Write a sequence for this structure.
């Protein structure tokens, strides 16, 4: 197997969406992201055995294997991997770096494309030094259980048409960006931490907003802005204050509101689910049973 020997100056950068439109057949693209994530695209691909000469992209690319691959060849940034690829193994191709890939048998993967602007924004919000100089390092092949768990959470949310809502999707994107900053930068990044939780005033303002808008698709941006904090610090301090993430708290409050409405017996179960902010009745029933051990109907009839 010989490398294409492309340097970064050999070709201009292209965004993934344009490249995929020209090079990937529709039947290979199982699902695209409909999630509410800025500067990030997620796609599930099933590719036949193939050889791909990859141009430098405007985005960072993380490609996670969902199935076993008998032979995977990755060549980029002066390095090469040639061997077996197991489920949850991944490679990280930084923006602007051309690459060459080969695999023998049909390949089931999850591709996460992250625009450098999104990573720089999180670096700025977390007050790390020189956020405009943040660069990710190349990873030819590795296994990272935490990264795999985040990617598979995105995959599960895609398969369920994003029913977790904007708050969940934005939280996942923030967690992924923080993980990349901590573990995959070319230089060590120190993220500032705050202790003590949210101020009582900020916490009450956020809680009042959540309670008044449970039926809406709540946004992490909105909640963080109420507290005048970055998304990273808001999640961190909210968890210190309440012992759970903002998304977990919202689900808890929606379940509590649903219990009250079910006991009141004035609305149909389908209406109660929507009134409490659940995407549909199936989503409502699944989460209600998970948190109470009972289906909504059984709880209402008890």
């Amino acid at each position: 197997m010989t490398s294409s020997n492309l340097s970064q100056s050999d070709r201009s950068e292209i965004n993934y969406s344009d490249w995929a439109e020209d090079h990937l057949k529709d039947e290979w693209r199982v699902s695209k992201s409909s999630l509410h994530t800025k500067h990030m695209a997620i796609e599930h691909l099933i590719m036949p055995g193939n050889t791909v000469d990859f141009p430098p992209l405007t985005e960072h690319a993380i490609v996670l294997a969902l199935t076993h691959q008998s032979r995977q060849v990755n060549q980029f940034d002066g390095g090469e991997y040639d061997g077996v690829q197991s489920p949850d193994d991944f490679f990280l191709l930084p923006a602007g770096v051309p690459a060459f890939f080969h695999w023998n048998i049909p390949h089931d993967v999850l591709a996460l494309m992250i625009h450098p602007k999104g990573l720089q924004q999180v670096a700025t919000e977390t007050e790390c030094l020189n956020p405009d100089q943040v660069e990710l390092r190349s990873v030819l092949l590795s296994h990272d259980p935490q990264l795999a768990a985040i990617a598979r959470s995105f995959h599960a949310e895609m398969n369920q048409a994003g029913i977790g809502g904007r708050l969940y999707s934005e939280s996942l994107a923030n967690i992924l960006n923080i993980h990349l900053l901590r573990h995959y930068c070319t230089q060590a990044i120190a993220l500032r931490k705050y202790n003590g939780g949210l101020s009582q005033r900020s916490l009450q303002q956020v809680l009042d907003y959540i309670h008044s808008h449970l039926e809406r698709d709540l946004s992490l941006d909105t909640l963080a802005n109420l507290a005048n904090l970055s998304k990273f610090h808001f999640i961190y301090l909210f968890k210190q204050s309440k012992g759970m993430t903002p998304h977990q708290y919202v689900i808890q409050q929606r379940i509590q509101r649903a219990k009250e409405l079910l006991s009141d017996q004035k609305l149909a179960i389908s209406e109660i689910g929507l009134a409490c902010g659940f995407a549909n009745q199936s989503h409502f029933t699944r989460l209600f049973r998970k948190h109470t051990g009972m289906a909504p109907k059984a709880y209402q009839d008890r």
User: Anything to note?
Assistant: Residues 1-10 have pLDDT under 50 and may be disordered. Residues 165-183 form the longest helix (19 residues). Strands lie at 29-32, 40-47, 50-54, 60-65, 69-76, 79-85, 89-93, 99-103, 107-114, 139-143. Residues 200-301 form a domain with the Arc Repressor Mutant, subunit A fold (CATH 1.10.10.60).
